[in-house]
Design goal:
By secondary structure, this protein is of the alpha+beta class. The chain folds into 2 domains: 216 residues, Alpha-lytic protease prodomain-like (Up-down Bundle); 99 residues, Alpha-Beta Plaits (2-Layer Sandwich), CATH 3.30.70. Helix content is 63%, strand content 10%. It is built from 9 helices and 5 strands, in the order ααααααααβββαββ. Strands 1, 2, 3, 4 and 5 form a 5-stranded mixed sheet that branches. Helix 3 runs antiparallel to helix 7. It is elongated.
Amino acid sequence: MSPERSSPPLPPVVSRSRKVVYAATAANLGITAVKFVAAALSGSSAMLSEAIHSVADTGNQLLLLLGLERSQLPPDESYPFGHGKELYFWSLIVAILLFGVGGGMALYQGISHVIAPHPLESAFWAYVVLAVAGVFEAFSFSVAIRELLRRRGPRRFWQRVHLSKDPSVYTTFYEDLAALLGLAIAFAGIYLGHRFADPYFDAGASILIGVVLCVVALTLVYESRSLLIGESASPEIVASIREIVDADPAIRAARAPLTMHLGPLDVLLNLDVEFEPGISAREQVAAVARIEDAIRRRHPAIRRIFIEARSLSEEGAGSGPAGGRPGTDARREPGP
């Protein structure tokens, strides 16, 4: 077994993730206050639903910040691989709250106003607040989009969002998208209700906002579930790892790499390789180090590498320590 070596430090992507969440939190705090004022002045159900939506969004951003902070805690005896999945857990809680508080309350407001219609009292302030909120939400939305485009991924934007491993970014993106759609729906409901003096347009807009929030929340639940149960690295990264291993002259054969995201930039890698006949123990150690260095240079997010290796000359020599494979030597490279 070769001596342990620490992994290289990660690039400062976490600080950019915080920037995305901070921008969304600041926007939501200001928008929430003015929406409640406008809802009180106009008597609009759709505006009240939007105000509740902004409260939920603000709380959600604070939970994402909590997840970001806790995900940076160092490994310990109870959590030897660190706390990176804290971010995935809190993003799941955010999705549940968005569904229950945001979508549920919006649906409740809309249905209650269908049962007991309430005419609009003043549409002017509602229009003003919708315009101001649109500016703030568009700013927060643009910050999330720029960060998604800045990171490596597929050319198709929606595929890049789907394959993103950072909930703090894609959750903010989806929430801001839902907020902008909600503002457009609220504007349409208030305008039509005021234009035709029919409160059912406003109530219908509130129900539609609730549906949008529920759809977005279920999308976030799906994304968080995949990461929580152990989503692998992207196919491009796995193919690149396989290419590096197969190119090493000391390796005769290798099984498909096994990867799992422990955090947005914390990937666990397990390799099972077979050496060429006649390879000495020193040459095996050198090959393992060479492979790990090449992988880390190309993919810095791969912070922990386990290599299960055997020489063909050792076949039939008896069970090794890892998984009962003949002559297997399990080697671990712990992260920082």
